Amino acid sequence: MSLVIAALVPLIQVSAVAAEPASEAQAQQIPTLTHAEAVAELKRLQSEQDNVKQLASSASGNVKLGDLHDTLKQLDDDVDALTAALTPQRAQLQAQVDLLGPPPEAATAGAATPARPRARPPRRKPPPW
């Protein structure tokens, strides 16, 4: 039995080492965004969306549907790019949340605090001198 384990250990280590370069290569291909960059990009996309809404609801009717379609297509592509850039960070955060486990139940959280505050001891009357 120990001979079989001794034979399998080098194979396990080799396969683990072989898997590392692929994950490192994948990590290098995906651009990561800082929080500030993601917020700035989201605000830019929201302003573009507002511009599209204004164009679509203009009373003059001078809007060319082809131009509106091209603008919407570009907006859709930009949203997809932002989503793709944030997906690895979201997965990492979800893994950390999963590691923490579910939140404590309300019954166990309430057991740490007393049901009612302690009553004060009664005041003693001063001596009748």
Key descriptive features of the protein:
single chain; 129 residues; mainly alpha; 2 domains; elongated; disordered N terminus
Structural class: mainly alpha
How many domains in all? 2
Ends distance? 92 Å
> What string gives the helices and strands in order?
HHHH
What is the strand content? under 5%
Low-confidence stretches: 1-22
Q: What integer is the average pLDDT? A: 74
Indicate the percent of residues in helices: over 70%
Biggest sheet overview? none
Give the beta-strand count: 0
Put simply, the count of helices is 4
Radius of gyration: 31 Å
Shape: elongated
Briefly, what is this?
The chain is mainly alpha-helical and 129 residues long. The chain has helices spanning 2-29, 35-56, 65-100, 106-111.
Write up this protein.
This protein has 129 residues and is mainly α. It has two domains: 30 residues; 64 residues. Helices cover 71% and strands 0% of the residues. It contains four helices and no strands. It starts with a helix and ends in an 18-residue tail after the last helix.
Describe how the helices and strands are arranged.
Layout: H1 2-29, H2 35-56, H3 65-100, H4 106-111
Helix pairs in contact: 2-3
